[in-house]
Amino acid sequence: MSVRTNQTSSTPRTTSPVAPTLDDVRHGRGVMELGQHGLGVRKLQTLMNDVFEHQHVAVDGTFGKQMKDRLASFQDKNDLLDSGKLNKATLAKLEAQTSDRSRGAYAKTLAQVNPMDPKYLPHNGSTFCNVFAEDVTAKMGAPLPRMMANDLYNWLGGSGGRNAGWKPVSAAEAQRMANQGQPTVAVYHNDSGIHGHIAMVRPGSMAGPGNPATAQAGSHNFLHGHLRDGFGSLPVRYYTHA
Q1: Average pLDDT of every residue of the chain
Q2: Could you tell me the sign of the dihedral formed by the alpha carbons of 220, 119, 203, 80, in that order?
Q3: Domain limits at 70?
Q4: Which residues make Cβ contacts (< 8 Å) with residue 157, sequence separation at least 6?
Q5: pLDDT digits (tens, 9 = 90+) for 63-118
Q6: Which residues pair with 200 in a beta bridge?
Q7: Are 71 and 91 in contact (CB under 8 A)?
Q8: Considering Cα of 48, then 51, then 52, then 53, what sign does the dihedral take?
Q9: Axis-axis angle for helices 88-98, 65-77 (nearest 10)
């Protein structure tokens, strides 16, 4: 004897994927794209509304077509890959447009991060020039990746740095750009395999040719100094974020 049962079929529910955080995107650990949702998307929507003053998107935590189109247009205008996805380079450009790029704001950020903070002081043979530079540039909307100084030298001089908005400049131009409030660094590559060095070119005055004002952490930490105080006669390259 067979028993007939009433069966109802149901379509499995699909949920949209959770977006990475802005910090994940900032450090190359993820990409935000159409269909994702979550707190990361909500924060991106707020950021986009700060940048696109007259073209607001809904702050609803869902990455929709309007967001995709707005991002693609922004990427096209800024010579970025216009995929409509939020990648590391696009986020850096968005954040740069909302940060206060002025001489006073740059000096204030350096003082707030403060190379004399215990976290940046030499400890057990380790120095933290890269961490200081990474923290300053992150606060200024132009984050450097979390790398050692030699690796930062290579990154800044390659497609990674170029796509993130960094460009090479002379010592004099580095000082001029810092005085305009643009994040600017001096970096040295140690070919012997030992760690290199990186410092922030800060608002101020040159102390002679090739000797711009700097702030740095490392074996010798200071907020107000000049390039030769930290690098001596080592050959350096300069990069600024436009």
Answers
A1: 90
A2: positive
A3: 22-98
A4: 168, 237, 239
A5: 999 999 999 999 998 889 879 999 999 998 888 776 667 899 899 999 999 999 99
A6: 185, 215
A7: no
A8: positive
A9: 80
As for how many domains the chain has, the answer is 2
For 20-41, give one letter per residue: b (16+ CB within 10 A) or e.
Answer: bbbeebbbeebbbbbebbbebb
Q: Is 117 exposed, middle or buried (0-12, 13-18, 19+ CB in 10 A)?
A: middle
Sign (positive or negative) of CA dihedral 105, 28, 58, 18: negative
- C-alpha span between 80 and 87 (Å, rounded): 10
Does any domain span residue 5? no
Helix (H, G, I), strand (E, B) or coil at 51: helix
Distance CA 189, CA 157 (A): 11
Tokens of 201: 């070119």
Query: Going edge to edge, which strands form the sheet with 237-241?
Result: 166-169, 237-241, 184-188, 197-201, 213-216, 222-226
Residue 73: give its domain's CATH number: 1.10.101.10
Q: Give phi and psi for 2, each to the nearest 5.
A: -105, 145
Q: For residue 157, give the nearest of 218, 92, 238 by alpha carbon.
A: 238
Please, what sign has the CA dihedral across residues 40, 45, 49, 52?
Answer: positive
**Do residues 33 and 53 touch, judged by C-beta distance below 8 A?**
no
Same domain, 136 and 187: yes
pTM, entire model: 0.63
Q: Are 189 and 150 in contact (CB under 8 A)?
A: yes
The two structure tokens encoding residue 32? 């935000």
